[in-house]
Design the sequence.
C-alpha cells in the first residue's frame, strides 16, 4: 500500500505552521510595539478583536465555499491572501492601521481549518482521522515555537517591520508545493488501488447537497459549536497574552521570552499528537468511537484544570510548566473535537460545519479579547481571572457535548 495520504498531512501540517506563525508575530512583538507605539491593554484588545471578527466571517464563509469549489482551489486562495495580509502589517503604525491589517489576516486565515479538516475527511478512514488531525494540528504549536525563536532575532536585527515581511512571505512557498502535490485521492498518480480502498473503507455518504441552514437544526452541529466556543478563546489567550504575562509577571524581555514560549508550545505539540493517538488507539483496541473520543476529551479537560494556579506560582518555570500542560491538553482536546465533525457529519457538509463552529469560536474569542483587555486594565495586569476561566471551561464543554450527542450518532438527513 502507498502512503500518499501522509504526504497530504505533511502539507496540512506546514500550512497550519505558517498560519500560526503569521498570527503569533503580533503577540511576540507586543511588549516592543506597546513601548514604541504607546498602546494600552484596551488598544491591544481592539486589535485582537479586529482579527477575531473577520476570522469568524472567514471561517464560516470559507467552510461553505470549500464545500463548493473544493479544497485544492480554496486552500490556494486562503494561504495566498493571508500571506499578503501578514506582510501588510509592516506598512502601518496606528492602532487603526494594525486593526485593518489584522482584519485582513483574520478573514483569509479563517480558511485554514475548514480546508484541512475537509482534506482529512477526504483522505482518511474514520479510524485514522483523529491521529491525522492531531498531526497536522501540531503545526499550530510548531508555528508558535518558531515565532519566538525567529521573530525577536529579526526584530532586533532589522526592525519589527522585517519580522512581519519575512514571516508573511513564507506562505507563497507553500502555495507552490500545494499546487504541485495536491489532488483528490481518485485523481492522484501516487495513490495505489490498495490505498484508495483503505481510504474509502467507510460507507459512502449520501450525494445530496445539504442546505447550510439545515445543519443548524442538528445536535451534532451544536456539539461542535459548543466545543469551539469554549476552547478557542483559551488558545487565543495563550497566543496573544502569554508573552505579555511573562513580561508583566516576571519581567521577561523580548529576547528572553524565546525559551519559555518555545518550551510551552513544544510540549503542546506533543499533547496534540498524543490526544489524537489516544482515541485512535482506543478504537483499534475495540472501543466504540463514542467512548474513545469522549474519554480523550475528558482526559484533556482534566489536564487543563491546574492552569488556574499559574499567576500564583511565584516561579517563572513553574508557571511555564502549568501553561505548557494546559496548552498540550488543549491541542489534544482540539484534535478530538475536530474529529467529532468527520465522525458525525457527511463529507459533503464537513467544511460547512467546521466553518460554523470556527465562527462560534472566533466570536467567543472576540468577546474574550475585550473582557481580558479590560480585566487587565482595571486590575493593573492581574491575570488571576483569565487563568481561572481557562481552567474550568473545558470540563463544562465536555458535559454539554455529551448531553447533545450522548451516543455520538451520525447526522441523519
Sequence:
Amino acid at each position: 500500500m502507498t502512503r500518499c495520504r501522509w504526504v497530504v498531512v505533511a502539507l496540512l501540517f506546514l500550512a497550519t505552521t505558517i498560519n500560526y506563525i503569521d498570527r503569533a508575530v503580533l503577540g511576540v512583538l507586543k511588549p516592543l510595539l506597546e513601548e514604541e507605539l504607546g498602546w494600552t491593554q484596551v488598544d491591544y484588545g481592539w486589535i485582537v478583536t479586529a482579527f477575531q471578527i473577520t476570522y469568524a466571517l472567514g471561517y464560516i464563509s470559507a467552510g461553505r465555499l470549500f464545500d463548493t469549489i473544493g479544497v485544492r482551489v480554496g486552500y490556494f486562495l486562503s494561504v495566498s491572501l493571508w500571506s499578503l495580509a501578514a506582510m501588510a502589517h509592516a506598512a502601518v503604525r496606528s492602532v487603526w492601521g494594525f486593526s485593518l491589517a489584522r482584519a485582513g489576516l483574520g478573514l483569509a486565515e479563517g480558511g485554514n481549518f475548514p480546508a484541512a479538516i475537509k482534506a482529512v475527511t477526504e483522505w482518511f478512514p474514520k479510524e485514522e482521522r483523529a491521529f491525522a488531525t492531531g498531526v497536522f494540528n501540531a503545526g499550530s504549536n510548531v508555528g508558535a515555537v518558531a515565532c519566538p525563536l525567529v521573530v525577536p532575532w529579526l526584530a532586533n536585527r532589522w526592525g519589527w517591520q522585517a519580522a512581519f515581511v519575512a514571516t508573511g512571505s513564507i506562505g507563497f512557498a507553500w502555495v507552490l508545493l500545494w499546487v504541485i502535490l495536491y489532488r483528490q485521492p481518485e485523481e492522484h498518480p501516487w495513490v495505489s488501488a490498495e490505498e484508495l480502498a483503505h481510504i474509502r473503507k467507510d460507507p459512502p455518504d449520501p450525494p445530496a447537497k445539504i442546505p447550510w441552514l439545515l445543519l443548524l437544526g442538528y445536535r451534532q452541529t451544536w456539539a461542535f459549536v459548543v466545543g469551539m466556543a469554549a476552547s478557542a478563546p483559551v488558545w487565543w489567550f495563550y497566543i496573544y497574552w502569554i508573552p505579555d504575562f511573562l513580561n508583566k509577571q516576571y519581567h521577561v524581555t523580548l529576547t528572553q521570552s524565546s525559551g519559555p514560549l518555545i518550551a510551552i508550545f513544544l510540549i503542546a505539540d506533543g499533547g496534540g499528537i498524543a490526544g489524537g493517538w489516544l482515541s485512535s488507539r482506543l478504537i483499534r483496541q475495540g472501543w466504540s468511537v463514542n467512548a474513545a473520543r469522549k474519554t480523550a476529551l475528558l482526559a484533556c479537560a482534566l489536564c487543563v484544570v491546574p492552569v488556574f494556579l499559574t499567576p500564583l506560582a511565584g516561579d517563572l518555570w513553574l508557571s511555564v510548566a502549568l501553561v505548557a500542560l494546559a496548552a498540550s491538553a488543549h491541542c489534544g482536546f482540539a484534535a478530538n473535537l475536530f474529529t467529532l465533525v468527520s465522525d458525525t457529519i457527511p463529507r459533503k457538509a464537513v467544511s460547512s460545519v467546521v466553518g460554523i463552529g470556527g465562527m462560534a469560536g472566533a466570536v467567543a474569542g472576540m468577546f474574550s479579547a475585550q473582557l481580558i483587555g479590560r480585566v487587565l486594565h482595571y486590575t493593573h495586569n492581574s491575570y488571576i481571572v483569565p487563568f481561572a476561566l481557562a481552567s474550568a471551561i473545558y470540563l463544562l464543554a465536555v458535559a454539554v457535548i455529551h448531553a447533545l450527542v450522548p451516543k455520538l450518532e451520525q447526522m441523519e438527513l
Q: What stands out?
A: The CA atoms of residues 70 and 115 lie 8 Å apart.
